[in-house]
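Record 1 of the preview.
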Amino acid sequence: MESNESNSKCVWSKDAVMALITSWSSKEHLYNTKHDLYKNKHARQHALSEICESLQAIMPGINIDDVKNKINNLRSQYSRELTKHRTSARSGTGTDEMYESSAYWYPHMTFLKDFVSTRKGKSNLDDLEYLQSDPDDGNSSEVVNEGSNTETESDAKQAPKRKRGSDDTMLNQAAAALQSIAEVLNTEKENLMDDVHTFGEHIKAELYALHPKEREELKFQINKLIYEFKMART
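->
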């Protein structure tokens, strides 16, 4: 297998592909259709921007479109390889003869396994589909189950402007949410880093979506809550 892979805009080395997969896998809202931020256009765009920045040292000049194209390409290739494996398993092939992908990136993309669906009653190798393609794609569709209707995304529609009178309510809700998280983190230590990372990504995305003045106010409230929480424990 060649060590370089290319799309229509740039050449991807093996190191670049592996770096992309590592960064992509850490941003669950880019592939988990049930994630709270999956349909949040601002959060997804920010995640893609972070991936792009992380690749600059390996691929100077790479842009977000390059990243999106490569993600879509890898996603399709992984789907085909996983379908071949599942098809050989359904056919009753022995363990020694079961299809195993030789692609170097395949073992590193198992984070996508739960987000593909094999349709029953088909024997071809194109029966594997994503539960939902990239919401930013113009032709995105969602596969709920076989025979279900497709639903087009409505991300392009602008959200109604938030009234200023709701700012205090929003800040209070954010403070209450942070208080709840703080209490949970104080009693549950298992999987702490994953929880903190996910929550941090959520808060970061929400902050980016706010008006600068509102963002500063919310940051102040968050820092104040963290300080009060620490003082209460001393």
